[in-house]
Amino acid sequence: MISQKKQIRSFLFALASIIFLLFLQTIWIYNVYTIEYKQIMNSLKDSFIQAYQKEQTYRVPVVDIVNPGAITIQSCGTEEIMIVRNCPKVDTIVYKNVSGHSIESFINQVFWGLREKTTPLNIYCLADLFAGMLHDEGINVAFVIERYYISTGEILETSFLPGKIQPKMKGKNVIILEISGMEALRVILNLGPENVLIHISGIIILSFCLIVFAVLCIIFLYHDKYAVQKSEDALQTAAQSPGQKNTAFRIGQYHFDPNKNELTGFGECIQLNKKENSILQSLCAKQGNIVERNYLLDHNWGSLGLIYSRSLDTYIATLRKYLKKDPTIQIITIKGVGYKLAH
Questions:
Q1: Which of 68, 152, 213, 306 is 20 to 30 A off residue 257, Cα-Cα?
Q2: Which region among 114-118, 131-135, 192-196, 212-216 has the lowest average model confidence (pLDDT)?
Q3: CA–CA dist 222, 6 (Å, integer)
Q4: What per-residue confidence (pLDDT) applies to 1?
């Protein structure tokens, strides 16, 4: 009978292989999820910046705010600049370059500062623009936009209209965009795992199919190995019937003990492996009659016999090498049929 320890060992090996494959799949899916999540967040951040830039273009241009043709900029080095508006009453504003930016960058900041003071941000328009971009990209996620003080965190505005119920944010993800030295915009996204998994569902299904295929292959190999072991044990049991139990064979000047897997002669003892012992035992048991090739394949390799046909030839060649010191012994190949041991 097949050893119970062998069965348990083979089963545990197959089970460990399946668990290892599932572990590898989990790690791979986690990495794919992480990469996809980062890509979605980067895409959302780019979309929000574009929405903010669009919202800016919808406001009154800076040149209209400062009375076109009636403004002069007087630079006082890189430390400060003066913007003089030649209105009926001359208006001069001095801005300090405390951040140490280049004069060109500093002037741009001053102009945007004038715009923000004169025509403030419309947070509801910004929310509509951002929602439209998310719709175009196929991302269905709720969000809240907040304008707040950077230093204190005090919320100045929110995109939720009064009286509306704010949805519960289960997967809070935040995008922050500074719009001045004092204020910033914050987008709180209701981006949960399901939003990311939708984007990688095709990859998950494909990997699941590959894992199922691999598991079926492991089960098949385990079952086939079990069948081979069973057939080998059946052959050994048949060869060791009550009348032949513990029977040794005399082959010319060699002594063959199948119970010990030993072939002795000419002052040496050759230790045979399991297949060599089984094949030689089958040839000896037939006592000079033909042993069919298919019989040897079936009883030593089971259902995979045809695949291991070349291996049988190798084992026959090895047995001939072991027995070559006695010229009276021959393992004769009967072409297309099998083999015969003559001595």
A1: 306
A2: 114-118
A3: 12
A4: 40
